[in-house]
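BUG: 3D viewer hangs when loading the predicted structure for this chain

Environment: internal workstation, default settings.
Expected: structure renders.
Actual: progress bar stalls at 90%.

Input used:
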Amino acid sequence: MGAYVVRRIGISVVQLLGVAFFAFMLIHFVPGNPIANMLGPRATPREIDLVSARLGLTKPLPQQFWLFLVHLVTFHFGQSITFGQSISSLITQRVVPSIALISYGTIVAIVLGVPLAVIAALKAETATDHAVRVFTSVSFAMPTFWSGLILAIIFGLKLGWLPVSGYGAGFGGIVRSLTLPAIALGLSLLAVIVRTLRSSLRHTMALEYVEAARARGFTTRRVLIRHVFRNAVMPTVTVLAVSVGFLIGGTVVLEQVFQIPGLGTLLFQAVEQRDYPLVETLAVLAGSLVVLLNLGTDLLQATVDPRVRPGAKSV
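Structure tokens produced before the viewer hung:
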């Protein structure tokens, strides 16, 4: 187990370096000059050059990348060109709405997806199973901004039940303001949960020890809870961890649609203004979150099921 942990951590470090490199390079290929945007149309070339030199943007790219890595490791993210304040403070101000939206959307997906997956597995290849799969396929195919707009029109503008923009105050206000975007985000993730869990449940229910439990007269509910579900859920947890990047992308769009002041809105503004340091930092943080969650999921899976470790003998 120790060798597997070391190997897996090493792979994650390489992945993190790759995320940092591509985030750094891609933003430099985006057309536009962030200093010119910051200073305005009346800025002279000399003023632009002076500010660029002060911010270190005139140094060779390898030197800029090295300084970027040093700042990431030391958690000194520097200053935002557009907002004129530290990137750390900007992230601190905006991170809570984004985390709340992702968490709320994941909860919605789990609350809806787990019962639907169980029903589809128990009613496999019936009309109920087909209906569940069609519904989840449609929800997955709909872009998050489109489903968010539909929900806002119906439940916000027509019925007036929920707000369609802004970020409320207090727990109740936050829940109300995030309900519609969270449902849109959860619906986009629903198909992943239902299809993965349904397949895993069907596979587990066909195993011999489950058939033996049924032969002993255990109820379907007891067999599902004690013998099937806890052994079938791990692949779904793994897929959820891999889907974090998808959730982050959906959050960026939904925060724009519902005017939520989170990291997604901040990233959109930073890209629009060619704010190199801010875009690079946000991209690396999002990529690092995905890498670290995948690492944690792999280590958890290896702890629960030693067969997934390289070199382990199947039983």
